[in-house]
Structures are given as C-alpha cells and as structure tokens.
Amino acid sequence: MGVAGSLTTRSRAVLGEIYRRLPLPGISRPTFIIGCGRSGTTILGTCLSKHGDITYLNEPRHLWFTAIPEADVWTDKANTRGGKLALTEADVDRTKSAGLSRLFRLETIMSGRPVLVEKLPINSFRLGFLHRAFPDARYIHIFRNGLEVAKSIEKESNRGKWFGSHSYKWDQLVGYAESRDDTRGLPALCTNYREMGLLEWRLSTEAIVAFLRRVGDAAFVEINYDLLVADPVASVLQLQDFIGVRQDPKVAEFAAAKVTRKSTGVGRVTLMDKDALLGGKLLPLSMDGERVLTKRST
To answer: Under a CB-based contact definition with an 8 Å cutoff, are residues 106 and 15 in contact?
Structure first.
C-alpha cells in the first residue's frame, strides 16, 4: 500500500527534495505517453492509471521544474528560468536528469505501484533528452486527426492560457518553427488559435515520427485515436502487453465505460490550401482512421 495519501503537499515536496539529492537509484524502464496535446493522451493515461501496478503521472510539471527549471514554458517564471521548448541530448545534465529519475522513482515508492507511466505532451519536443536520460524507456505514441486537434486547441485556448503565460510557449514554438527550413515563415501565417494549434500539431507530430523512426521497434507502440475510440478494450490490452504488466480487468472495464468520442470528428475532408500548408505531409495521413504514421516506408 502506498503512503502518498498520508502526506501533505508540503511534506511530499520536502521528501522529494531530499530524495532527489541523495545518491539513490532512479526509475527503471519508464513508459512515456507522447503525442500533441488534445490527441487523447489524457484518456489513454487515465485508462492505464487503473492498473494496480502502474503509477501514472499526469503532466507532472512540478517534478520537472524541481529537477530541471528550464523545462518550464508555461508559468510566469518561465522567462527567468530560461524555459526551453525543445530539450535535446545535449541538454542532458547528469545531476539534473538523475534527480528527475529519482523523483519519478519516489512517486512509485509512495504509491506502492512499481511501474511508471508518464504523460506530458511537451515531451514531443524533448525525445532526444528522454532517450539519453532514460535509455531503457518505452514510448506510447497516440495521434489524432490534425484538424480535430487544431479545433480542440482552439477551444481550450479560448478558455485560458494554452500557449503559456504571456504566450511564452507560443513564442518558443515560433522560434522552433523558424529554425527549420520546412516550417520557416509558417508562424506568421497563423491568424487565429485554430491555425496556431494546427502548426503546433505539425511540429509535435513531425518531431515524434522522426524520433520513433530512429529507435528500435521494440521501444514504441503507436495508437490511432480513431482506433482507440472504436475498440478501446483491444487497445488497452495491447498496451498492457507492451508495458510488460499483467492484464488488470479494471483497465479494460474503465476503457469500455469511458472511452468515447466526445466531439464530432472532422473525418477525411478536402484540405484547404492553408491547412495543407500549415499541417504538412503528415496531416492527410492523420485523417485516415485506420493507419499509423511511423512506418519507415511512409
């Protein structure tokens, strides 16, 4: 039985700070759920959280900020922390990454569930960092029709600060896009949140696909959001096998009851020229509800 429920937020923070600094083992074989935000990462992670052996961390930004302050691209402290959208292998600092690994392991100790699954969509831009810091990690990539994601990001942006305090995250996305030959100039074409969301989807998804095509097939599995919604039980059974845990019936029960499409899908429509330009080559592929993106022949 875990002890997390008996600790106050302050006590957890103090314990974490102590554990992070001690020369103790970090987490082993973590699984990272990756994909652009609004692609189904949350419901997928929530399904897996029902497993009795899985500690699920849903966007644990506080752990990242504690160990790696420059991981912050959301808060009003991002500028002073030197927040960076993309973290590469070159950004790995042994002390900081070891501290993050220990914080992850501490979460599994406190929960009494030894297998770690983490979801943080910004990791789309930090896969080189993760691969070096956690060389035995596995990855679950869930992707969704880019137009649907853009529409969902637009909705969330109208509610609050999707693109960070004072648009800090958006500014970082702009810098990232401008650093690439194939996306240079595209941020200037974005005149609303939907178009900004579509560009974020493209940048995230292209970064993920490029990374996964370089790693071994055993290190990742890819889930099409449409297929998850169509047969959630089959999807979560596959994922438990991939992670290497026993089949827990609570996962399938939750998936069968809760995984549904909550909004009308865009489907396969004729792309407008501007959407095609902003969405890139993967956009029409994402609109096919029966395919994957990471086939090396793609």
So the answer is: yes
